[in-house]
Amino acid sequence: MPKFSSPSSYFLLFSLALCFYSSSNAGSSHEFPLSWSLSASQNPNGKHNSTGDVASDLRTWLSAAMANQETCIEGFEGTNGIAKTVVAGGLNQVTSLVSDLLTMVQPPGPDSRSNVERKVAEKNRFPSWFEREDQILLQANGVTADVVVALDGTGTFTNIMDAVAAAPDYSMKRYVIYIKKGLYKENVEIKKKKWNLMMVGDGINGTIISGNRSFVDGWTTFRSATFAVSGRGFIARDITFENTAGPQKHQAVALRSDSDLSVFFRCAIKGYQDSLYTHTMRQFFRECKITGTVDFIFGDASVVFQNCQILAKQGLPNQKNTITAQGRKDPNQPTGFSIQFCNISADADLLPFVNSTPTYLGRPWKLYSRTIIMQSYIGNAVRPQGWLEWNQDFALDTLYYAEFMNFGPGAGLGGRVQWPGYHALNNSAQAGNFTVARLIEGDLWLPSTGVKYTAGLGA
């Protein structure tokens, strides 16, 4: 199969994928894969709203298309099987095409990556779509709100969804929504047309967005999210997202993000099973608190967690806790989870039951699941084996799980699993592939957010 490396070749490949998708799903009532891409292409500024690394952007978008197809099929769980079979048959053709396109797109090499980074550096390392006044605003660590949400009526709106609806579509400028202290009991959805929104709260103990949708109560996992964001360039700061359905309601998402180039800073994500759904695209979490029980960080995004607290909770009797369930389906997808400089421990409610509640770093949701834990504290809640099977020997040969320079009572490698796909790294070059600079191309877009980050392995 031919390899392509020029921007014109990439554009042609992606256009072919869009055309194939559009014709094969005409008239569908579902929001199927790649619809976000189509909406972007309708906007004349869409081509500027990216990192500038064409190969990386294309691989990210194609990977998201593949994940979206899988999510669509998963939404038919619990049906009589006929509808699921019909839909799966049609989507398999698209999946095959996307997989082929991923093999054609060359991963960015060191030379091409350095060239892109140099070009961005020449422009003060801000993407082309970021306005100069926004750069000054964020560099100064100040935020000027466009609208204010307040439960007591002292703001522009009393609920968050009204503020989201008022935000401009396809905005190339940062649009800031300040959410005052309060408990907001609403399900928020930021659709793909809402670009570059920023939400700022009054701290994780002040501004709380709360919902209780769950799988048991009839919601798909995807639609159970208390807060869901698809519009690219989203930033959240000083907000709690929670799902209060409880462990007995099984899948119940607090936060779902499909937002490319999104950042969550000093936020809390609270739930039990499936708390945080990092569904697709490139995401960054810094100084966040994430709590849950089963697979409570899951999805198929390319995501880095830095300086976060990741806390396992007490769930149902005899239940095993698994922190991650990464969903990479194809070996050419650039996706994966990187947990760096974090604290992985037991939450307060689990502490008395640490010895009787097995907790693991993760398990393979999909065939090529990929997760690395590095330079982090691992507490005694984590079992010596470290990792858990999904279903017997499924994916144990094809997954990529790794640990690098961790410390703490749960970080010992002597009792770790002996799977072919597990790696105890002692090579910084290998670990470097999962840094902010490499996994999510953070140097190309994170400076514009004003959020602190570490690009490489340095503390």
From TrEMBL:
E.C. code: 3.1.1.11
GO MF annotation terms: enzyme inhibitor activity; pectinesterase activity
GO annotation terms (biological process): cell wall modification; pectin catabolic process
Residue span(s) of domain Pectinesterase catalytic: 146-443
Signal peptide: 1-26
Organism from which the protein derives: Gossypium arboreum (Tree cotton)
Family per similarity comment: In the N-terminal section; belongs to the PMEI family. In the C-terminal section; belongs to the pectinesterase family.
Membrane-spanning intervals of the chain: none
SUPFAM superfamilies attached to this UniProt entry: Pectin lyase-like, Plant invertase/pectin methylesterase inhibitor
Name of the protein: Pectinesterase
Pfam families associated with the record: Pectinesterase (PF01095), PMEI (PF04043)
Catalytic activity: [(1->4)-alpha-D-galacturonosyl methyl ester](n) + n H2O = [(1->4)-alpha-D-galacturonosyl](n) + n methanol + n H(+)
UniProt keyword Cytoplasm, yes or no: no
Keywords annotated in UniProt: Aspartyl esterase, Hydrolase, Signal
Residues annotated as the enzyme's active site: 295
Pathway(s) served: Glycan metabolism; pectin degradation; 2-dehydro-3-deoxy-D-gluconate from pectin: step 1/5
Residue stretches making up the Pectinesterase inhibitor domain: 36-104
